[in-house]
Amino acid sequence: MKILKKIGWFLLFILGLIAIAFLLGPTMKYEKIDNTPLDGKYSISEVEKIITDRNNNPRIKADNEEKIIWADGIQKTEYAFIYLHGFSASHEEGAPIHANIADRYGANLYLSRLPRHGLNDSLAFLDLTPKLLVDYAKEAIKIGKSIGEKVIVISCSTGSTLSAFLAANDPDIYAQIMFSPNFELHDKTTKLLTKPWGLNLARRIKGGNYHQWNAPARARPFWNHKYRLEGVIALQSLIDDTMEAEVFREIKQPIFVGYFYKDEQTRDFTVSTEKIQEVEHLLGTPEDLKEFIAYPDGKKHVFISPLFNENWERVQDDVIDFLDEKLKLEPIAELAL
């Protein structure tokens, strides 16, 4: 019996060493983030200079540049729309819905380019961090406030992660329109990426330093279809640190959320549709100012784009109904489709 007892203690000791080795394993470390809005507004000339300077980068892929589409000359409009695109994407992801919506209401439109995105650079995501993404989104909101009296944020996927986090602490954001919001990834094992040995685990699973997906040829100019795994860990860290119940409860603005879901076999397998449905009931937004729509014919995660879904116009119609009926925006022109 004494021998068995000694063996038991020895095994516990070994297991303890293994646990300590795991807990002391390498993890990605990031600066803290917050959702405090930036003060003040830019002048129009400052806005133009910021965008010109950012676009002065020879590595930016064609048609991935930031831009402002002015509604009526270079001046402020009553409403301004901002488009925050998803992880590894570009503003083409939301085309033509974002431009059509802005045209309909005579609003300026700011098309963003998230940090390290839209580049001809295989190492672009190597140093991506949650703080880079959040700080950029804060600046995008400030630009929106500088080109419109009321700011409406249109976003997709991880752009919605940023929009939700910032809106929770910024009542000057007038409304939010979200598509396939990334409140949580569908694959729950991604939560292991921010734990000790997460990067090593990802490299072992992927067989190298990169994640790659089979983007259609027509979409490749506007998406990074191969990128460093460090970027995926930064993404998961962003979700871990921001997509919490208390954040959603602080969101009071009108909100439209659309996502692809028919049943358990026909659904978005990039983001968690269960989490989207949960968030609907967590929001602080009044019931009459929020709308969540599941699109059974969405086809793909980016169901708003004609590059992936021929039924995108139905989504656009629903957004227009939301803006007309719930926000009482007045169109200046009907869409010519």
What can you tell me about this protein's structure?
The strands form two sheets. The chain has a seven-stranded mixed beta sheet with strand order 1-3-2-4-5-8-9, with helices on both faces. Helix 4 crosses helix 5 and helix 5 runs parallel beside helix 7 (229-242). It has a single domain (29-326), classed as Rossmann fold (3-Layer(aba) Sandwich), CATH 3.40.50.1820. By secondary structure, the protein is α/β, with parallel strands linked by helices. The chain has ten helices and nine strands. The chain has helices at 2-23, 44-55, 97-104, 130-147, 158-167, 198-206, 229-242, 245-249, 273-280, 312-326; strands at 67-69, 77-84, 108-111, 148-156, 173-179, 210-212, 226-228, 255-260, 290-295. It starts with a helix and ends in an 11-residue tail after the last helix. The radius of gyration is 22 Å and the shape is globular. The relative contact order is 0.14.
Number of domains: 1
CATH topology descriptor: Rossmann fold
Sequence stretches where pLDDT stays below 50 over 5 or more residues? 15-24
What Rg, in angstroms, do the CA atoms define?
22 Å
Organism: Portibacter lacus
Protein name: Alpha/beta hydrolase
Transmembrane segments: 7-25
Keywords: Membrane, Transmembrane, Transmembrane helix
